[in-house]
Request: fold
Amino acid sequence: MTTPDPTIRQDGVTLDPDDLPEGDDKREAVRSLFDTIAPRYDLVNRIMTFGLDVRWRKQALKRLGLPAGSTVLDLACGTGDFCRESAKAGLAPIGMDLSMGMLVAARTDAPLVHGDILALPVAAGTADGATCGFALRNLVELPGFFDELARTIRPGGRVSLLDAAEPENRILRWGHGIYFGKIVPRIGGLFSDRTAYDYLPKSLAYMPPWSELRSRIEAAGFSDVERKVFVGAHLITATRGG
Ligand SMILES: C[S@@+](CC[C@H](N)C(=O)[O-])C[C@H]1O[C@@H](n2cnc3c(N)ncnc32)[C@H](O)[C@@H]1O
Reply:
């Protein structure tokens, strides 16, 4: 009997967690991965973050600081967690995601758009703000994304970008490495897809250091760039200049 090759996904798209893809291969692998894990995405998320992801999104909206009625793009909205929280806060969210599987599994009344957030179908300067949860490391490129944010958000508008991150403290980083690198893939394998949850922790390697991230956001035209660090995640907020 032969052991199945863990890098071959059912729909034929190859994803090898030890060889992180780039460019179109990355976009296709990411889309396919989220289509696969969509049905149990929320369940695994709540288990692996002990429900903290819900609190982090609330913090992200508080720090967005926009008044009720503001139009907020939820970029890479997935199953709509940010859209739901935004609506509860009186904002007017619009979600967009690359994975049709995630959009089908979404539980939100917000309008949802299928597409790539690196090319937003939104007129220049028309959004009051944007949220983006746990998606930066999945993008094919970050400078192009920050440019799209700067193009679509009005001057004075705000962005809240929440993502997984390694803790800065050495001991916490060690514990986080074991949890995220060894335990999360097992939880994922138990409830969903092992290959996907092997890949997700490793995809942290795509992220540049904070100093570089900050410079890129500023270079795109944002000011007041701030970062709040949680254990296992960080929240970046900024204001569109101009
Ligand atoms: C980890 S999930 C996060 C979902 C949701 N934002 C949340 O907070 O739970 C990452 C999402 O990013 C989406 N995504 C990745 N690359 C994308 C792109 N280029 N354009 C749109 N969505 C993208 C995936 O399809 C997936 O739904």
Observations:
- The chain is about 40% helix and 20% strand.
